[in-house]
Design a protein that fits this description.
172 residues; 2 helices; mainly beta; 4-stranded antiparallel beta sheet; single chain
Length: 172
């Protein structure tokens, strides 16, 4: 099966989130389905030029990411000792081929559109992490890979109140 055919099988997943600029208890009581996000979630990812689109290498390609180890698991990765990055080949269920990202402010609400296409429809986990603090200066991705591997832990500035949205994907 070709790489393109596998990508088509993987499909696209989308998520629409609402972040309020005012406390949630101050919002009028309305059903989420009645809120106007400005997005149409109909199973098709828009080709809107306003969306940030990130293409990624897929397949048997080593990518810079966290090394596999007990200290690089989701819950404790922020405390992993350096070096914690290396070249790895993520399994197909975690290997993203493309990501779409956009925000839309409607009144006092901020909507986030996040969609991704996986390389393979196998079991995997995709996470989108929200952190209040900027990444460490050593994680400037304009630096060469050797510097990043030696000095960067992108999760090192996690703090109380940060959160992740995790997609636990079971096949298709």
């Amino acid at each position: 099966m070709s790489a393109l055919a596998r990508r088509r099988l993987a499909g696209v997943s989308a998520l629409l989130l609402l972040f309020s600029l005012v406390p949630l208890f101050a919002l009028p009581a309305v059903a989420v389905g009645t809120l106007d996000s400005g997005y149409s979630i109909d199973g098709s990812v828009p080709d809107d030029p306003g969306f940030a689109v990130f293409d990624d290498l897929v397949g048997s390609v080593a990518e810079l990411g966290p090394r596999n180890g007990d200290d690089t698991k989701v819950g404790v990765i922020n405390t992993a000792p350096l070096p914690m990055l290396e070249y790895t080949n993520p399994n197909g269920g975690n290997d993203l081929a493309k990501v779409w990202l956009d925000t839309n402010v409607v009144g006092d609400q901020v909507w986030l559109y996040f969609a991704f296409e996986r390389f393979s429809a196998t079991t995997g986990m995709v996470a989108f992490e929200f952190q209040k603090s900027a990444p460490p200066a050593a994680c400037n991705y304009l630096l060469d890979d050797a510097s990043l591997i030696a000095n960067c832990n992108p999760w090192a500035n996690r703090s109380v109140g940060d959160f992740s949205l995790v997609f636990d994907l079971q096949g298709q």
